[in-house]
Design goal:
alpha+beta; 76 residues; 4-stranded mixed beta sheet
Length: 76
């Protein structure tokens, strides 16, 4: 399973999403869009918006910390 989390260090929902996904035994790639302009552009292209966290699970985009959708995409 491939999981990417587009986040910023100051975003509380980003921290919650990362903790939650880790608690389910899943690894993820954390992408700090506050430091990486190219990653920010990639996130906006994927999601159509600037909000974080933007989570990509197996090419499916989740905007925000949507636990139900995250669970569904992780097969929980």
């Amino acid at each position: 399973m491939e999981i990417k989390i587009y986040s910023t260090p100051t975003c509380p929902y980003c921290k919650l999403a990362k903790q939650y996904i880790s608690s389910k035994g899943q690894n993820y790639q954390d992408i700090d869009v506050s430091q990486d302009k190219q990653a920010l552009e990639e996130m906006v292209k994927l999601s159509g918006q600037m909000g974080v966290p933007t989570i990509v699970i197996n090419d499916q985009v989740v905007i925000g910390f949507d636990k139900e959708r995250i669970n569904a995409l992780m097969g929980i």
